[in-house]
Amino acid sequence: MTKADVINSITQKTGLDKSEVSSTVESFLSVVKESMAEGNDIFIRGFGSFINKKKAKKTARNISKNTAIIIDEHYAPKFKPSPEFVDKIKSSVKVKAAKKVA
User: Which of 4, 33, 36, 94 lies most in the core, judged by the most C-beta atoms within 10 Å?
Assistant: First the structure.
């Protein structure tokens, strides 16, 4: 599902204008990105958490050149779904059916 699909789905469910929904979705995503870039975590009850996860300094290998590369300590975005979200996916018949076909 793409962002456009999400916007169309919200438009159909709410009856709001597509441009209003698009603006709202874009604003939400912008706030999430900006807030996380400032070092803040975002917690949405019943959905999940967007967290800045600290990654330790490590040594990696460039196999093609056979050299070692040092990757400094850094932060990476992570999403952790809420227990309600996980339970909904686990109990979904459509997800189970799609996984059996693949």
Answer: 36
